[in-house]
Known about the structure:
The complex is a heterodimer of chains A (263) and B (311). By secondary structure, chain A is α/β, with parallel strands linked by helices. Chain A contains ten helices and ten strands.
Amino acid sequence: xxxxxxxxxxxxxxxxxxxxxxxxxxxxxxxxxxxxxxxxxxxxxxxxxxxxxxxxxxxxxxxxxxxxxxxxxxxxxxxxxxxxxxxxxxxxxxxxxxxxxxxxxxxxxxxxxxxxxxxxxxxxxxxxxxxxxxxxxxxxxxxxxxxxxxxxxxxxxxxxxxxxxxxxxxxxxxxxxxxxxxxxxxxxxxxxxxxxxxxxxxxxxxxxxxxxxxxxxxxxxxxxxxxxxxxxxxxxxxxxxxxxxxxxxxxxxxxxxxxxxxx
Amino acid sequence: xxxxxxxxxxxxxxxxxxxxxxxxxxxxxxxxxxxxxxxxxxxxxxxxxxxxxxxxxxxxxxxxxxxxxxxxxxxxxxxxxxxxxxxxxxxxxxxxxxxxxxxxxxxxxxxxxxxxxxxxxxxxxxxxxxxxxxxxxxxxxxxxxxxxxxxxxxxxxxxxxxxxxxxxxxxxxxxxxxxxxxxxxxxxxxxxxxxxxxxxxxxxxxxxxxxxxxxxxxxxxxxxxxxxxxxxxxxxxxxxxxxxxxxxxxxxxxxxxxxxxxxxxxxxxxxxxxxxxxxxxxxxxxxxxxxxxxxxxxxxxxxxxxxxxxx
Lengths: 263, 311
């Protein structure tokens, strides 16, 4: 097995008497695409939030490329090479789509005095435009981010997260709030771009069809811990996962003509 | 870097220098005070774009004025250029210290905390006999790289120094605003979480903005002190801060030129209103602000932006 790019050991988080996560130990090799599933409140987002520094774990350690990042700030974790998108897309609402990406690229520039260089250089704007085209949102380049359809806003959020060229990216429900038709289009674009860039991807998802189609590995969460970990075909048919995670959803998904399953 | 705004600033500066030889003394004095105070507003504009309002810029304005005045009285430092640099540096250091706390707060807490710091300085000045207490102190006559003008020549020299300071400050702020760190104002105002998750520190950026705004206010304080020839605690009083916020709203924050236009208009209206309607000048200024907010919520500068946009 390849040397892990991300390791989590005995990770746990309690809020007062409530245990949001416990005993999570996972090792992710480079360039793997991992789907994270679980019912609401199972600890998926808590897991993502702990890895990206949004909340500090109560127990355990997180290693990125062998370096302990458990106590680092979100900013430092991002700078090291772990980025994320959010369940509710986090963009700059009053700025244009192009400016959103330009700011992300401007911050990502390295070198002495990088932040003091002019933002709107021709090269940076060309690079921003190229990113918009890669994510197929170039048609919206001059639109204010707060006027975008939900799917485009999600793509913009992900494009910004990846602008810094991270090695690991965590996507928190990249298709939530998006129509069935759009979901697959978005995942095709996102997974295509991220895989082509050689990134390690962890994505939280409720739609099991999406997970089955795009994940190489699935982590199933229940009551704050990972109860199954393996290839989609194995995990999604695990009895415990069927009972505690997938429930009726998978069966409904499998039923021919069951459009309600996507609702 | 050398964009249209900087060329426009240079053209305004040339016109202002030429004006020194044709304008009456009272107009020169008025323009000097207006441009000196515009430097404070320029700093407020930087904070404003980040979604932060400071009701305490008089802290740095007063600190700059007192630093220059006392450097002259106690250290014998009379060179006006050095005094501007000195007052600005002292104010920047003060802003850096205050900013360690201020940068942690947002919205009304930032505004009121900044006000609190300025009132502390005001209280210290009022209660310190050695600093002239409520009367303040007169400052020594400035020199200009060895040149020691008196009377009208001194007024003109301070005017030219103020115009040059205004030009340099506005150009530097314009360059700063075009930089990546300067462009983070809107993103920080809109979504700090995303800024952090792109790898930048919102708090560090705000801290820097507080320091820049403080340095500008300090320079404004020195130039005002040189123009007036006197420093007193009123410079650090909250109503002085309120006046700067007033001009910021009046001017708008769309361009580095706006604070200068707003400040000139404000000082002109105030001066004439005080002469012709001494009992009601505050009523007139209040009405002007009300009309500005109602009809030009983006400040007077929005008139130019609308015109450019063809509205």
